[in-house]
């Protein structure tokens, strides 16, 4: 058995207990770095960099550690991982270039390929001067001066921190080398011809021919050195065109200098950024987007995400920008979401919900389901995530999986109110999507066993009964009686249910005695409610003067038997129904649906149910820009 390092468990314990303990990670890495256990060191570096991939300094240390162990393949692997994770790190690229020089010293093509990779990745970075200088110096040391000129042409049109120094270096380079060596053959001959015309010396040779040169061995045109005057004018023409580039570049730098000077922490750190720093990044992005240079905009977003990696608003803004571009940018958007959700924000439901919406929009239902399942595991009991998982399965036609999820969430819910909400949705789903009213009724009846006094559940049972064709009168009345006959049912709610029962039987019952019995029950409920209210007022010893009695006698409290003329538009007198009249006198004929009895019921919502209000709209709370319809920004998360 391999012997472990004596202090290793202690350092691992700290970061396992709190993976966000950045200082604990640094202590662990310091410890394994100084010990002679490559396996332990690799495990520590891999775990740390998996969590903090923007820490370029630790990629360097990891590569150096592998180099000390003498494993070139591992060194290359570490560099590849690091440069993929933080491709904008000029320091990491330079470290990698130096490594390549020691490995591919004589392979010019290989070295140039690595330099071009680096320039392509971060050459537009405002602080990339060091990388450009290294590339230019390498070409210059190889005496490939025309390539140096080509590099300067790219650099002089790139806004960087050292733009002035770069132009001065180019001036010195032009002055120190013959034009025919720093220009390509075609460029030199073209420019020399122009200069000769300018100097009116077309036929003037650079050096007088001698009779000593045999015919056919005369030097090529570009090998004939220009005269001193030609050299001076050619150099001036070279600098003239570059001055125009430099001037345009200087203007570009000046436009960005204020924003660049406002960036005090361009690297990643777990400590929060100051508000002024965040404001500066936002304004810089606004400016760059207005310039409409897509490459520079994307580079700036990537720079911003290094410094602001722990602020999800910048990740979302990058996604919105990519979505605004023409063409297929799905892979770029997917990459941004993946980095945000799997690395920097594994516990941000909003980001995961939007990523799942994106994948579903691309037709990747399996990936969307995987994303939602992952955030459901990491952040359990989020109602919005539960509904999204259920409805994703419904949208892709897997209704059985939706049922499994519904039942799982109802069973595992720790909050009775939320469990009821899910049960109501499940019942509606069974009724409307699976056409299984009987099972929907069973779901709600099971919910009433756990919450016998919740009016909403009984209202939904009534609504299900009304969905049958023909309507089973006894079934609907049975659901109403279940609540009315509850011993501890809220008296005001009992009045409303009794009123619903009267209205329903008026319209559907074939037995007038049943209707009259319902009237008597309704009046009994009103009387009990009034007595309860009076008793409560007396117990509270209310000192306010009693209200004046109305002139209307209470003899009308018992309604007369219904007549043929009154059955179609039966209304209760104000003294009979008192404060329990419905808002629409229940003339809509909908006794448990949203537009009828639920409107009456909403006068008395259960105070313990914060999610009750407007439940019939079946909407989730939300705020922010509607990038994804009802699935964009959640203002808060309800736990079940």
From TrEMBL:
Residues 611-625 have a biased composition (Polar residues). It comes from the Eukaryota. One of its GO terms (molecular function) is pre-mRNA 5'-splice site binding. GO terms for biological process: mRNA 5'-splice site recognition. It is found in: Nucleus. Residues 564-603 have a biased composition (Low complexity). Residues 201-224, 528-640 are annotated as: Disordered. It holds the Pfam family HAT_PRP39_N. Its main location: nucleus. InterPro entries: HAT, HAT_PRP39_C, TPR-like_helical_dom_sf. Keywords: mRNA processing, mRNA splicing, Nucleus, Repeat. GO terms for cellular component: commitment complex; U1 snRNP; U2-type prespliceosome. Belongs to the PRP39 family. Involved in pre-mRNA splicing. This is Pre-mRNA-processing factor 39. It comes from Fopius arisanus.
